[in-house]
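Inputs:
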Amino acid sequence: MSLLEKDEKQGKRIIITVIGPDRVGIIAGVTGILAKYNFNILDISQTIMQEFLVMMLIVDSENSTIDLSELKNNLADKGTELGVRIDAQHEDAFKFMHRL
Amino acid sequence: MLTIQEIMETITMVQEEHLDIRTITMGISLRDCADNDPRAACRKIYDKITRLAGNLVPVGEAIAREYGIPIVNKRISVTPIALVAEGSHTDDYLIFAETLDRAAAEVGVNFIGGFSALVHKGITGGDRKLLDSIPAALDTTERVCASVNVATTKAGINMDAVALMGRVIKEVASRTADRDGLGCAKLVVFANVPEDNPFMAGAFHGVGEPESVINVGVSGPGVVKRAVERVKGSDFGTLAETVKKSAFKITRMGELVGRSAAARLNVPFGIVDISLAPTPAVGDSVAEILEAMGLERCGTHGTTAALALLNDAVKKGGAMASSYVGGLSGAFIPVSEDAGMIRAVEEGALQLDKLEAMTCVCSVGLDMIAVPGDTPAETISAIIADEMAIGMINQKTTAVRIIPAPNKQVGDHVEFGGLLGRAPVMPVHRFSAADFVRRGGRIPAPIHSLSN
């Protein structure tokens, strides 16, 4: 499975990861925040690893109304509410580590 | 193209395996701050540090948030103060240490390195004043770190300085006796000191460095340990390859953070120091990597070979990952800062002599070692001399950071807390080297220094 194949939007993309026990409302909760602050979802992928839900979203922050650190705070609050861990990181944190 | 597995791997490294950026260190030249009037010099030093490093901490925190990787320390290194203060009309350099301490507190960094002198071939007037000021400086300041280079492969070993440092270390310990000799944890004696090392306590801003620079130190023993555990039972080629790949990934994060910090602070990016720096946290230990390779305890026979493999593989993986590698770059083996080392000492598996052998194949030296408080100054000097000889002959950096723990004996512990950790007091040889140390003069440079 490959994410981040689209090369447009380079440098504006944020990777959101959700890890925790599966339950109703996780996608709705996360995407609700993204829609509210105008982050465009480029890709969603999810899988179950052992008993945990692992979901990843790649979003474009070009026209968003809040910055990355505010987004992180919003997502962390939602994660606490849903009982899962939600994090958002700049795409470079992943691209740099695995690619020259 | 990133895969879901790669994204999960990065997240696991940070969240479960303690991957972090150990330090962003801003090097600042203070050569333009010299002044006849020591108070004027100190004013210039304070102004320059607070002006250049004012944004260091907020920038570091912003980068940590954006990339989701902890940046544990933000620090500053400066031109060796002996070079800056030498032009001032004063015999006491304590005022310079106090100025550094205030500037560090103002910008919010926990350590500032560079209360230093380079005396590998001889001691100038300014050097001597600095060395004499070290005990008071480390006693009365909180954040200042001192280092003294007493040997190089090119110059040999300045045994006068080695003898002096034994006495200085004893005095620092006695002045900070109420804190278990904490001052000694902020004092390093070097051979072949690197001029761009971002790690404390030995960091300073070398004379060949630019006006200001950002150097980054990575960490990540936990990541390497997990990787080594996954190839249990495989041959050495596979083991080395596994360590290399982990080191590559760790170093890439350092490169990313270093470039970002340099761009945002508008100063040049210097180097990534690709060292494996342990912390007292369980699982964040270099000793545990060696044990994961198949040693029952760090310090037993085979430890030197295991460390040699680890250190070399870290360099090879790291060198691919960064355009500019520098500093110490290798595995650190500080006893008090590594839970596995502490356990190995407590269980009798690891002694001073084995640690000395280990320093022949890794990046630093005898680091954060506590010895009995009644150890004579000459014995400490002799321990330093051995370590300097290893560095000089092998054309590598070696260092000694030793704590003669006041009023403590073998079996006791010193407690520093935080990243400095806790150290069991280790025995030293009881036979004297005093007549050797007292000879004075220099040990000549080795034949292979004649390379021109």
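The domain at 24-191 of chain B is CATH 3.20.70.20 (Anaerobic Ribonucleotide-triphosphate Reductase Large Chain). Flag for discussion at group meeting.
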